[in-house]
Amino acid sequence: MSARPALEIAVTSPVGARTAREHGADRVELCTGLELGGLTPSAALIEAAVDVGPPVQALVRCRPGDFVYDAEEVALMAAEVRSAVVSGASGVVIGALTADGGLDIRAVAALTEAAHAAGRPVEVTLHRAVDQAADPVATAVLLPGLGLTRVLTSGGAATAGEGTDQLAAMVAAAPGVEVMAGGGVRPSTIPELVATGAAAVHLSAKTRAAPRRGGRWVPLGASGASAEQDTHFVTDPAVVAEARRVLDAAV
Question: Coiled coil where (predicted)?
């Protein structure tokens, strides 16, 4: 593990990327639909975030829900990976599982190959699909041979703070692959996550944006959200800055 663990912030906009950069993030994971666990951002969004932020890791996830994909979905995500790299992303965040809870090695290999198709160095992160695997630690054993840069994980628990034992086991199981602790991370939980040997911590540092409505509100879709909840998430600069402070102090 490096002497200074990295801080990655999940963001959904160029403004979020700039906020993360200005308050201490080493890189950002860019997505849309954060309330759905994150979905693939557009090429234009990636380009805009690259222009203003720290290094951009683009999440590639073509739909919400499970991580068991058919051939058409894998082909679509491979195209999204190539587009993200062309748009300037320094890395992509990918993942896929088999129906029996194993890592879909063929899909991961196809997405990793797509990331390197441009012929320049590109980081590849396995996302939290690993936490829905039947055995996250056994899955981590496979990662050094797949050309992955890092894995984002809560240790298979609901939050990384609850999965510290598994996180430490994954660090030991995947030499050469950066283990990044993420999932329900708050600045106050960072010291215990660093103690597992994790090379980085990941959090969204999100807060709800104040609604800006000029007219009346009516519900759209089937979310069941109230008028107050029917908004979007933005990056909270104070949370990013506090996470940076705590992370540096934990080294």
Answer: none
Model confidence pLDDT, tens digit, residues 158-215: 999 999 999 999 999 999 999 999 999 999 999 999 999 999 999 999 999 888 887 8
Domain at 6-250, CATH from 1.10.287.110, 1.10.10.1100, 3.40.80.10, 3.20.20.380 = 3.20.20.380
For 16, the 3-state DSSP assignment is helix
Domain boundaries, the chain: 6-250
Q: What is the pLDDT of residues 51-107, one digit of tens each?
A: 998 999 999 999 999 999 999 999 999 999 999 999 999 999 999 999 999 999 999
- CA–CA separation, 229 and 245 (whole Å): 30
CB atoms within 10 A of CB 71: 10
> What number of other Cβ atoms are within 10 A of residue 22's Cβ?
14
Pair of tokens at residue 235? 């990056």
Tell me the pTM: 0.94
The vertex-100 CA angle with 95 and 102, nearest 5°, equals 40
Amino acid at 174: A
Q: Is 27 helix (H, G, I), strand (E, B) or coil?
A: strand
7 contacts 246 by C-beta, under 8 angstroms = no
114 Cβ contact list (under 8 Å, min separation 6): 78, 79, 81, 82
The 10 Å Cβ neighbour count of residue 106 is: 12
